[in-house]
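User: Predict the complex.
Assistant: Input components as received:
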Amino acid sequence: MSDTTLTDTGLTDLGPFFERYDRRNQRLMAVALCASLILSAVIATHLLATGATGLSGVRVIWSTGVAFTPLFIAGWWAFGGLMALRRRRAAPLDGSQPAGTVDAGNGMRIAHAGFAFNLALMAAMIAGQVVMALVVFGFGHHIRGDLVSRAIMLTVGAATIYLGNLWPRMPVSRAPEKKPAAVMKANRYAGWFMVAVGLLLVFLWGLFVPFTPPAQPPFEPSKHREISLPAAALDRFVGRYDFGNGFTVSVTHRGATLWVTREGIAGETGAPVYPERPTAFFWKMVEAQISFTVDANGTVTGAAFREGDMHVQGKRLTR
Amino acid sequence: MSSVFKALSDPTRRRVLQLLRKGPMSAGELSDQFDVSKPTMSAHFAVLKEAGLVGSEKNGKTVTYWLNATVLEEALLAFASALDLNMTPRGAEQTARKPAEGKS
C-alpha cells in the first residue's frame, strides 16, 4: 500500500501501481520473446544445416516448436496488452484508478498473482525450448524428459491455482447498470475453472501420471568382448550405408580400426568401432552396435544399427 | 486464516455468505432474511469483514455488502455447510437468539 496515494475521499489511487505493473509485464514479455526468438533461430539454423528441407523439414521444424513458441508468446503479450488497455479505458481520463481499501488490496494481489503466472508460463515456454535445443544438438540422452515435463506442469499448475484462487476477488464496478452480480458470478466461475485446471496440471501431469522412461539398456561396453580381425578383413565393410530418414553413415578404415561417421552433421568427426564378431562392431563411447549383412558371395549388402531402443536396418549405397 | 474458520463456524454467517453469492446486497436486505436483532447482525458482519470474506461500501445511510471470498474460502464454505458445522459456543448462540425472541 505504501506506493499508492491516499486521497481525501478515503479511496486509494491504483493508477501509479498499475502503470508500474504494466511496465514490468512489458519487460518480462519482451525478454521472453527475445529469448524465444534466439532459441528458435539457433534450432532452425541447426535443423536446416543438417538437411531438414522440403515438407518433412517443415514438419520437423514445426514439431520442435520453432514457430509455435514465439508465436504463442507474442499472442499472450498482445492479449495481456488488450486486457491492460481495457482496464485503462474503464479508468478516469486522468489515469487515476480510485478504489476502496478492500478493492485496492484485491487489485494489487491479483496483479501480483498475474505477474507470477506470466513469469511461470514464460519460464516454462523457454525451458521447453532449451530442452528442445539440447535434443536437436544431440544432448537429449542427458535429459530426464519426464522430470522436465513434471517441473513445467508443477510450476504452471501452481501459478494457475494461485491466480485462480484470487480471481473471484477481482474488483468490479458495483453500479447497478454494470450488472455487478453477473460479473462477480462470472469471475467466481472463472476462478473455479482456473483452480480446477491448475489442480489437474499439478496432480495429474505434475505428480501422478506415470511417465514411462525409455528403456535404456545398461551402458556396459566392457561386456562386449573385443576380438581381433586382420586389417584386410575390415576393408570389405568400407562404404556408405543408408538407414532411411536422412540417417546415412560412412564407414572408413583408419589404421587398424573401422570408423563410422554420421553424414550431414556439422562437426561430426565419427568414432572408432571395435569388432566383437567377424561382422559385428561396437562403440566404446556409447552403448551402440553396428552389424553388417553379408550375402552368400561374401559381399556386404547392408547394415543394422542398434542404439538403446533404436534398431534400424540400412542398405549399402553403391557410390 | 483462523478468522476465516471462526467466520465460517456460524450458520448465520454461512447463510449470509450464501446469499451474497447471488450478488451484492444491502445490510437491510440481508437482515430481513434473519430473525435476529440488528446489533447481532452487525456483529456477524463485523466478523465476516474481519475475515476478509465480505467487502462493504457505504452509500449515504445504506451499507452494501458483497462476497469477497477466494475459491479456497468458498470451498471451505461449501464444506462447512455440507457438514452443517456449528461450532458456536452454546452460551453465545443463546445470547444471540434472545433479542430475536423478544422482537417476535
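The longest strand of chain B covers residues 54-59.
Let me know if you want any component modeled separately.
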